[in-house]
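> tool_call: predict_assembly(chains=two)
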Amino acid sequence: MIDAKGKRIMHNNTKVLKIDYEKCTGCRTCEQVCVLKHDGVINPMRSRIRVVKWDMEGLYIPMSCQQCQDAPCMVGCPVGAISRNDEMNRVEVDYDVCIGCRTCVSVCPFGAMSFNPIERKVVKCDLCDGDPQCVRFCDVKAVQFVDSASVSLDKKRSAASRLKAAQKQALALHEEM
Amino acid sequence: MPLDRKIAYVDLTTGNIDIKPIPLEIRKRYLGGRGLHAYLLLNHTQKGCDPYGPDNVVLMGGGILCGTAASGTGRCDVMTKSPLTGLLSSGNMGGFFTPELTHAGFHTILVKGQAKHPVYIFAHDGEIEIRDARDIWGMSVTDTQWAIREDIGDREVQSAVIGPAGENKVAYANVMTLIKNAAGRCGAGGVMGAKNLKAVAARGTMDLKIAHPMEALEFNKRFIDQIVSAKVNQTMGKLGTPFIWGATNTWGGVRNRNFQYNQTEYADEIEPEALDEVLEETMGPYHMAACYGCQVHCRGQYKIPDGPYAGKYDEGPEYTSQGAFCGNTDTPRMTTLLTANHLVDQYGVDNLEIGSLISWAMELYELGIITSKETDGLDLRFGNDDAVIEMVHRICKRDSWLGDTLAEGGIQASDVIGKDSFDYLIQVKGMSNLHSDERGTPGLALNIATASRGSDHLRSRPAIDLYHLPEPVLRKIYSNPVAYDGPLSSEHTEYIGKAWQVFWQENTYMAVDCLGICKYHTTFLGATLPNFEDWSKVLYYNTGLDLTPVQIWDVARRANMVERMYNLREGLQRRDLRKGDMLNHRYFDEPCRRGAKDVIGKTIDKEKFETMIDEFYEHKGLDEEGVPTQLTLESLGLDNEPSHLL
């Protein structure tokens, strides 16, 4: 598929948003550009991604849609307006069908489905049709768009490196004894 | 649209609230932020008004790009008449307050009058409320903010607040937001305290319409890439501003023992890398935080590792705290740095001013001008870490004779202490110098002597002078957007051409303060960062306002002239040591004793310094006394001020 600027969009249907919250600096650029791209305005309240903060702990966690396989919003929707698009690897809302009952907002375990009181409709992440702006603007790579398999591989590596360090410590202790 | 953001006039005496649009004519002349505030301060105060009286006004708000995705647009400018200097009080801070204020529909709040009891102002979706703050009064900077969130019942509320130092009218109390962002230096916090105004809070859900959204998205990306690709910002994103300490202290450009030396010895413990280790140990590998919409993330996060405040969370410390609590006082130890930094953030007081005045008092103690009688038994010798911490408490609480005296500001304290204490006070216009020592750098000395809010590095410092850039590179930077064919020198110890550099920097910094973006995104510490041409575009795409680079330059010149006019009205005179464009005699009389070869033995040559001032005045269009000529006023459209257009 070719986008408006003639750029080829690789449709890799296993790509997911990977949020590495430890890296987040809390700048909220993701919120700004999400809304600018979708609505042509800036307003964090409309953003599909939100940075949740604990200011006194210096902890910032970006929250967005996980595009669940068995999505509660999809299951809960009384009119069947929500479906999975496997080509884009995302859960989508069909606004022609949606009745605005906000059941999806209630059932989403991540708070990723929100209700926009200005246009009075539910909104969720659509991965910007394959070029997520939150990812594009996040210089520290707290939000990345990666192959779903690599998410767990990275975690495996990270956990393994902790084991490796622990093993070295254990060996050193053993030698001391 | 950013252009439809309004101004709210709040009278705390009467409770009257007046909301008005900001006319396009005013936008074209001042854009917003600091420029707009300077215009309003000149127009809404009378000559000689009491800084702590009801007639003084506090202006608080963002620049014209505030809240847009143009990078670093979370800046907040706070302006008033300074209780410290009696002249312009102006401070600029980052954080998330002004974007929230923008989404609440406002770019600027003007507060006058005096409330009968502690209150706070709450701006939300086009409305302004004055709310009771009696239960919040007395709280620290951070507790105040959490209490306001609780009072309103909304965790997204952002506020600009004062701490106990502002309530106690310490002459250099800050207005602050979140953990450490401070609109500091001139005592705006005390002015708020005198008005019984604990905070201005904001919560907004209004759309900020962008003039050309898709073009803005693409241009902002380029703009941000230009900012984050600069080496200086990459370094700052890792080490924060403390990265500067390593170079400036080694080289010999840092005040030590008030002004006796220009380098702190044995300062390994507070070198940027050592500091980074503590940040990493206490907060993990990702310990840098950012202001709204900024990719530079220069703010460190830490927990105090040991001492009586062990485990307390804070942010920074900045380069300025290294100087204030380690270099100046000759206490270069990590715990002192992190603890004092935490205390000033909680009390809401200016780190530079308090550190500088403590080190001044230490020199007076060393000289016997003050004794243990005046210090109530405190051993106020240089190098005494506990004394530094104790003095921070005493000043902020106005506890003990010396604490109370120093809380009034340096010149005021020198009048009380007497003898020749004034001679040792390193200040310009009543404001203490940054902890830097400018004897080896005449351009930087000119900057602190002429800065509009007193001795200050963030108004016109040609910091890139220290990089020894080749002359053609300098010429390219300094001939934009207006031609300059006068002399320029790559040599930082020279005097020639520095007046133009300071003049250019003054306009550059003013431009970003009116736009509402961070100074780290311009030619301050890096030479490859955005400039007038980029701002012209970013302004157009985001706001629809079509100004050429030269028109933005003119906005900056005009706004700087308004600040000058304000200061002249309030008593600035060229050679006045208390209120003028003049340096302490030690700059001219005492040679540098430490540092690199090109610094040792250096003083500022008084005659050449005066020539630089003459040149600087000429560039600005001032006469030899520093007063704008009629021609200058006419060319900037300022011949009819105060014009009361807003």
